[in-house]
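Could someone model C2E with this protein?
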Amino acid sequence: MPKVLIIDYDIDLGEFVSQAIEDMGLECSVTTSAKEFLDSASPDTTLIILDLLMPNVDGVELLRMLAKRRCAAGIILMSGIGARVIETAVELAATLGLNIVGSLQKPFRLAELQEVVRKHLVPAAAVASNSHPAIAVSEEDLRGAIERDEFVLHFQPQVDMVSQAVTGMEALVRWQHPSLGLVSPDSFIPRAEELRLIHALTWCVIRRGISMLQRFATEELPAPVLSINISTQSLQSLTFPDELLMLLSCYNIQPSQIMLEITETGLLDKLASSLDVLTRLRLKGILLSIDDFGTGYAMMQQLKRIPATELKIDRSFVSQMLESYGDRIMVQKTIEMGHELGMNVVAEGVETVEQLEFLRANYCDVAQGYLISRPLPEDDVTRWLHQYRPA
Ligand code: C2E
Ligand code: MG
Ligand code: MG
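Reply:
Sure, complex below.
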């Protein structure tokens, strides 16, 4: 049975929390003393609920001691001293390698506490089945896949916050593996980068993307801007802008129908050597987007140098912005900064109506996420576009 350990200076609150956890059918012990707490924490403790504010030893010290012992239990932090302090402690604990599974600001409701506990105690198997199995990709496999063009695209629509019209479509690559089935990009893109095969793979994506744009045209669907994810390796190729433009003109596609997405971290790593190609792409009319924004700590000074037209807020901020003060500020400031730099701001990973409303109230321009649609295969996305009506 899962074992829960609580340390709270306030014995009444400790007992109350303990009772609520026992009501969930779990074994629970509670203490007010740091020493007793450390003595009782054992390798079979599943969950620790820890008050950050203790009189003799503070919660942060306790976290350090737990980290020293390589504590693997899930930890829920509680405190009555403001959301910011909890968030900082959560970050600190994560850098110490501790497994923080939630935080609670006092006073909290019983239901809130039980929800956090329940989430952590979902059987590990259920969680694992949602994630993609890591696959070992050999150089040969990947080279062969590129030669045989085993990649397919799924498309995820983006909608304007005000008019709700579909303004864009992001092309997301998947590997149609002969024996493994559909493999997600997280399982092979990093490997393709490492093997320096990503540029060749990107050409497969570009060609597929272009044929999709032609299909939209034949089906008389309004032409959305097609977003394509690009590695900075492609930006080191000085011939890339001309080659791309040539291909587009062969198929009679305007450069302004193509948006290239480059991650913020990638850009920061290779800013100086990428600026040449980025600027020429932009001069030729291709649109540029900074993807996963917020994960790379770009400074306003650096951002100003990148000739991008769009800023995409990373979905990790969007998913937590209604619960986390820090993420909310990050989202609001990114929207303001993007607009000041003349960029369109896109929120990725929008999953709920509440998130959409918050983004709209804060003047975010475009939304992309499961709330609007999951990434869809070619046939499904054309059907989706035919049926789509702004609400
Ligand atoms: P990304 O460019 O940031 O793409 C967005 C990812 O978020 C996609 O994952 C998409 O399925 C997922 N997503 C969209 N809406 C939601 C939502 O509401 N909730 C949640 N939880 N997730 C959402 P996907 O397709 O697995 O792609 C992962 C990453 O792989 C992409 O992140 C991109 O960095 C990379 N990638 C995909 N295709 C390509 C490609 O053609 N070339 C390169 N270089 N990278 C690619
Ligand atoms: Mg992207
Ligand atoms: Mg992204």
